[in-house]
């Protein structure tokens, strides 16, 4: 039977041994127990795609997000309500990152000038549009339960999706966050 992998690609068992040796190197004798328990397999991480629909007022430069779609491969979802809420929370964090959150440093002292929630803007309920969450994919075969961690998966890509929506609405490519009025006018 012919192998489809290149001669430079290590086999799955060789990769597991490499990962196992890294675990042992970091965790000592406890790492040996982990490697033995895992049979030298590496669970897959969650991943996903984010899509944003935005509207930009051409005269005022006001950015409004009208819809966000978040599709995630989270493996076997044990508690769908909890997983959906986790992704919604990450999406709201991504909206805040894209539109509001900015750390301002005092040039004289180097200290953070907006270190309180009174000065540091975050997304609120009025800033959050309809969020569609969908789960795709199969259970992870390397994990006994088949789950994948989705803790931060909802945040990754939201700001980029909003910036791409701005590009499609205005023709301006925004490469720094937060997206401000002066960048849109």
Characterization of this structure:
With 185 residues, this protein is of the alpha+beta class. The protein has two domains: 36 residues; 138 residues, Aldehyde Oxidoreductase, domain 4, CATH 3.30.365.10. Helices cover 34% and strands 15% of the residues. The protein is built from five helices and three strands, in the order H-H-E-E-H-E-H-H. Strands 1-2-3 form a three-stranded mixed β-sheet. Helix 1 packs antiparallel against helix 2. The longest helix is centred in the middle third of the chain and has 20 residues. It starts with 11 loop residues before the first helix and ends with a helix. 23% of the residues are buried.
| CA-atom Rg in angstroms | 22 Å
Can you name the CATH architecture of the largest domain?
A: 2-Layer Sandwich
Report the end-to-end length measured between terminal Cα atoms. 62 Å
From the 3D structure, determine the CATH topology of the largest domain. Answer: Aldehyde Oxidoreductase, domain 4
User: What's the domain count?
Assistant: 2
- Which structural category fits the helices and strands? alpha+beta
- The helical percent reads 25-40%
Morphology call: globular
Main sheet record:
3 strands, mixed
Strand fraction equals 15-25%
Q: Give the helix tally.
A: 5
Q: What's the CATH H-level superfamily name of the largest domain?
A: Aldehyde oxidase/xanthine dehydrogenase, molybdopterin binding domain
Based on DSSP secondary structure assignment, what is the total number of beta strands?
3
What is the class of the largest domain in the CATH system?
Alpha Beta
Element-by-element helix/strand order: HHEEHEHH
